[in-house]
Every structure is written in C-alpha cells, then in structure tokens.
Amino acid sequence: MQLYFDIFLIILFFISRDILYPYYKNLQRKKQIIKNFKPEWRNFLQEKVLFYNRLPAEEKRLFETKISGFLLDYEIKGVETDINDFDKVLVAASAIIPVFRFSNWYYRDLKTIYLFPDAFTINHPMLPQGTLLNGLVGYGGMIDKMYLSKKALYKSFEKDFDGKHTGIHEFLHLIDMEDGEADGVPDILIPKVYIKPWKELIQKEIERICNDDSILSDYACENAAEFFAESGVSFFENPDELRQNHPELYRVLELIFMTKTK
Ligand SMILES: [Zn+2]
C-alpha cells in the first residue's frame, strides 16, 4: 500500500512540476501582459507606427501583446533625459516590427536600452574621437546594452519613407548577432543550405550600392552586417520600392522575416 502511495506522490510531483506550474506561470504572464498595456498606447501606436496602423484588427492585438511583453522583459532608461511611456513604446515597436511574425522571439543578448536625448559620442578605439552616433549595440562593454538617440528614434517613425530607421536598424544588428557573429548572416533564421547563396547575394547587392545602382543607403556598403541592417530597414520601411528595385533581395528577406503570404 505504501508503495502505491509513494508512486502516487511521485506522479503528483511530476504533474505539478511539468504541467501545473508552467501552466500557472503562463497564465500569470498573460495577466501581467494585459495589465501592463495602457489603453492610451493604442492611439499613439495608431498615429505613430505605420506598421501597426496597417495591421488587421486581430493582429493589432497581437502587436500590443508583444509590445507589452517586451516592456516587461527589458529595462529602458534615460541618460541625461527624462523618458515617458511613449518613448518606451517606440523602442518596443522598433524591437517588435522585425520579429513580429516569429511565434517566440527573445532578444537574448539584451537587458537594458539607454535613451540619449540626441546623437551621442563614446570612447572606442575603432572610432575617431567625437564621432556622433544615433544608435549602438556591440560586444565587450556593450553586451546586454543598446544605446539609442531619442531624437533619432522619433525621426525613425516619421512617415517620410526615407529608408532610415535607427530603432529597427539596431534591433536587426541584435538579430544578426544572436548566433555570436555580426556578419549579416542570421544563421538561426536561414536554413543552412541557403547561407552560401545569401552571402553571394549580399556581395552582389553591396557592389550595386558601391556603383550607385541601389535604393539602399550608402551605409549598407560598409560591410555585410550594415547591409543586413539597412536592407532590413528598407524591407519594413519601403517594401514596395525594395520589391521593384531588388526583387531577389526582397524575396529572401520575405523568407527571413517570415512575412511571405500565399
Ligand atoms: Zn549599424
């Protein structure tokens, strides 16, 4: 009899640990996410974030959930500037747009986003003294951190379709760096067999930029990592223009960001 009771207790332990507890945690998280989202953010998103504005109603709710979850998971701090919820929502929108179609995405190498009032400088051996930056992620001292200019962040969401978006650009670097290398090849998002053709396409497209035969910004010419960030920005900012001028690149980015519809 004692043996049956012990077996019963062991089964109960596993059910609690592997089923009930994760279910409870999941439920708590969902409740937190709903509570964390403030209704006034909805109008702000509608007005400022074109990507959200264009989503059908049910996907708007999903976007809101992801924004709210992002704001629970990461810290956003102002540096020599006060920041409010709307500033934070724009940071979160920059993070969510590129990964919106992924069912589960967590920026593993990120804890805190620091918002500077405007362009900022840093001391770095690779950068000439006084170089003004609008955004930065990296290794070493920058691990777990992102620096962003608040002014550039707001400019990113203006509907000028200038193909520039500091917020999305920096988050695309983080996506690229998830596999440990900032090389323009997000290994976790590209099936192995497509990596070589993707690298060849990067080279071909970089040559086009250097020869002034591209809609992508000259900055994408710097290296493969900047190319990935800038072509991704163009994909989300000016998709029609990118599709018309760089159809092959557009198709691959569609697959990478899983936005392809049948
Ligand atoms: Zn960059």
Structural overview:
- The protein has 262 residues and is an alpha/beta fold.
- The protein has a domain at 181-262: Collagenase (Catalytic Domain).
- The chain is built from eleven helices and four strands.
- The chain has helices at 2-36, 40-48, 50-53, 57-73, 85-99, 150-156, 166-177, 192-210, 224-237, 239-245, 247-256, and strands spanning 75-78, 110-116, 135-136, 144-149.
- It has a four-stranded mixed beta sheet with strand order 1-2-4-3.
- A hairpin with a 7-residue loop joins β3 and β4 (144-149).
- α5 (85-99) packs across α7 (166-177), α9 (224-237) crosses α10 (239-245) and α10 packs across α11.
- It is globular and about 80 Å long.
- It starts with a helix and ends in a 6-residue tail after the last helix.
- Bound molecules: zinc ion (ZN).
- Zinc ion (ZN) binds at residues 169, 173, 226, 229.
Helical stretch tally: 11
* Strand line-up across the major sheet: 1-2-4-3
Distance between the termini: 60 Å
**Overall average residue pLDDT:** 91
Largest sheet: 4 strands, mixed
Please estimate the helix content.
55-70%
- What overall geometry do the principal axes of the alpha carbons give? globular
Question: What's the CATH H-level superfamily name of the domain at 181-262?
Answer: Collagenase (Catalytic Domain)
